[in-house]
Amino acid sequence: MTTLSLDALSDEQVLARYIDTGAPAGDREAAFHTLVDRYHRRVFAICFEVLRSRSDAEDATQETFVKLARGAAGFRGDAKLSTWLYRVARNVCTDHIRHDARRPATPVADPGLLDDAPSEPDSSAGTAEHLAVATALDTLDPLSRRALVLVAVEGLTYAEAGEVLGLPDGTVKSRVSRARGRLATALAERSRSPRSDATPPPDRTSHP
Amino acid sequence: MDEIERLTSYLDGELEAGERRALEAELAGDQALRERLAALRGADQALGALGATELPSGARRRLDARLAGVLEEVLSTTPEGLAAPPPPTAATADDAPAPSMGTDGGDDELSLRRRRRVRPAVTGVAAGLVLLAGGLVGLGQLDLGADDARTAESVDAMMSADDAELAPAEPPGADGEALAPVVIDDGRSTSTAELEALLASPELEALADQALSAGDGEVVAARFQQLLLGGVPPMTSGSVADAEEAEEADRSVEPTIVTRDGRTLDSDDAGDLRRCLATLLKDGEQAIPTRVELLEFDGTPAVSVGLVTPDPQSGAFTRIEVWTLEQATCQVLRFDQV
Question: Is B336–A111 a contact, with Cβ atoms under 8 angstroms apart?
Fold first, then answer.
């Protein structure tokens, strides 16, 4: 049966089935759903890391897969599908941030923090320790934070994270390394003085 | 390799045997180093305990529902109708967002603009940009009437005709400078605070202080976008198909971009600048790209774009926004707004 055989195929082979115009529509659709099975959660995680809103991340995730469905024929076989997909997700999310913030009907409440706004309450992040880590993560600059979370929490390779962030692998690796160090420092400081405040918000009222 | 990289590589089991032994010897004799390693290990464990992001409940069902129509459409399309791969070009290899991503609504214009940068500018019709050192002096003298068509004429007259006819880099005249975006490339390295300070740039403030009406602002927005991006100004009326057709026809006209100190930006920088600007200004957005600067932010080459945009309530062009995008990817690094 198709589903069984698909499981044994690489992403690129599954994609090849999806775009095989000679194959029955049902088989092609099954191939596409296999790719969704493999990447839905991870694409969502990437979008969530960039957009910091679950509903926005879900929208962006849907858009990414719609783009995959429509644009799969343009995939060049010399790249890994995951890499390509993450790049698409990155572009969708970047457009989303921009479009959202600029939409007059929904002015951004605190645009200065757009890039590193604290995460929404998350059902999985209830414990004090999770909160401490989340707070410490928010002291990192947005790029370092993203690099660290994508690699250390979401399990992306340096190359995949590089694709999401638009940075070379080596840069991602050294950024992640430094971010781990800074996170360690932030957590250590926090455990010494639990009430110590995070960096105060930037003063955007200096505008005369 | 600095200390932190040595320690993280050690924890990841990536150090060579010799390096590992050397580090272990140091650890044995250095209490502070041991504490730093322990803190690092603790942070790694805490991160690991966060757990990967879960999908919201029902997300798959909603995705499948959205995909159903798309898949039906794609799968019923004849082979000829499927999106063909874009012609491979060296220029798109490293930065193409999504190769040939089909025809999904508003992305078309954006991808068009992104592709446009790989086309060589047509010599002879390259438009020169006159860039100001001192801000938008001429703006206050403009006859910006309420009637859009009339305004368009007067603004055009002030800004001297079509791109193709603009003399290259005409120096600012004594009788009030030409009205154009300011482009800066001083090789500046900036901090977060300095990016915020850009909100108070004289160019941006001068324009926002004019509080252009919706109609006038639209005309200036279209003109400024055209001066930087080339092609036809984004359509504010008429059908989408018309706008795309016009853009398609005209997209090879890329203006030369001249900085405020009179230098022509090299084509790579100009291409990046245009690409990032196009990322910001898709959908014929009502925004006046007033001040554009190539700079370095947090060690990363970046493009800072100062926009004057309409206030959502009044509709007048009084809002100032400064977007900082990574030059290589046009990813948003920072956004400030007054």
Answer: yes
